[in-house]
Structures are given as C-alpha cells and as structure tokens.
Amino acid sequence: MDPLALLVLAGAGLGAWWLHRYQRVPERLRLRGGGRYDTEAEVALHVALHEGRSRGHEWLSSLHVLYGLLQDETVATAVRRAGGDPEALEDRALAALDAHEVTADTANEAAWILAYAVAAAEDTGRAASCTDLWAALSRSGSQGAALVDAAGVSRVAVLFLLFHGAEPEITEELTGDVHVVLRNDHYTTREFVCDVLERVFELPSAEANTRMLATHEQGRAVIGRYAVPVAREKILETRRLAKARGFPLWIGVEPT
Predict the structure, then answer these.
(1) What is the CATH number of the domain that holds 199?
(2) Which of 57, 223, 249, 256 has the fewest Cβ atoms nearer than 10 Å?
(3) How is residue 128 annotated by DSSP?
(4) Distance in angstroms (rounded) separating the CA atoms of residues 249 and 200
C-alpha cells in the first residue's frame, strides 16, 4: 500500500542519476532499458524533457513533469472530471516554465517525484504509470503541485479518478443493513487505514490490522455490517480524513 518505505532504496539510485544534466537522461527513461515506466508514462516524461530542452533548461522540474502528464489523455480527462480545465492548467504550466528558473533544488523535486512513482510501482511488480507520477506529484509539495492547487484542481480527486473511477454513492434508496467495504490502492498508507478503522469504526487494534492486511493482499475487505445511516456517517468521515491527507481511499457499501 505505502511506497514511502521504499523511497530510500529507490531514490538513492534514481535520484542520483536524475540530478545529472538531463540531456543525458532520455536513454535511461526508455521502458526497454529497465522497465521502470510503462509506455504512457515514458511518453509523458519525454514530453517533459522536450519542453525543458526547448527552453534551454539545465534541470528537469516538477513543472516539466506536470506539463508532460497533461498531454496524457487519461490524465486530462480525470482533471476535467474533477472540475478542472486541463487546457487552462497546461497554459499555466507553460507560462510558469517560460518564467521559471530551474535550479538544482527544483531538480530535487523532480527526482523525488520519479523516485516515489517508481517505488509505488515496484512495490506491486509494475512499471510506473502516469497515475503513479500524478500520485507522486500530488504528494510532493512541489511547484507543480502548487500550480495545480492555484488552478482550483483537487489533486486527490484527480488521483481517485485515475485509480478507481467515480466515487461510489450511498443512495437514499438503501435501507436496512449494508456491508462497509474497503478497496486497495497503491498510495494510501497502511498506518492511515489502521488508524481510521480504529478511530472511526472503533475496531480493536489487532482486528484493524487484520482488515487492513486483507484489503492490501486481497484487493478488498469487508469492514463490518452497519445500518445505512451509521454506514453513511462513518464512510463520509473516512472520506473526509482521507482527502485531507491526500489519499485516494475507496470506501463504500455492498448489500449484505
């Protein structure tokens, strides 16, 4: 669930080569050269590199990565569905790149984003995707993330759409008891899930850990059986907490 523990290992190697002048980097980004990125992510990163090179930038930054991601139709669609304007956000990114002085500090932001994305992917035996890159950008506290915020786009809403699709509704037609269900993702930390299960659902610590592990290992887990009003209250509180932390946690109901 949580790639942060892997960042030390992934970032130690990945960040080191990334901090070289990035004109030398494209060969190392190729999927065929090590399987770090899937095709769409590779394209997005090459677009990012091209935009930097065309401006004579010595270092890649989070703004370059953001611009590259916005060229991916899946990302652009998710931004639009989250209530944003991907074309306007792209214009903001270009304007920021034109006015931006890219330094070694901003290159560190880009290195962190790439390390996080690769760590998240390698934790589940995948090549890093555009979703992984967006998750990393969202968690980075970078200039690219700040630009998304300034455009009025919810980073976590976009991430949720990229990973899960639409958030499940709890309709008024539901009555009686329902099962509250969690689904796994690659970015929500295990600690957060356990904390929510203990605080919001009042599960004992050992049971919370068991349900968290079941979600992580099986892709989903039933948390418990609740009356609809109680389930709705607990789910809305969990979603509020998850969004405040930037986690795309899926929680919903199923019939008993």
Answers:
(1) 3.30.1390.10
(2) 256
(3) B
(4) 14
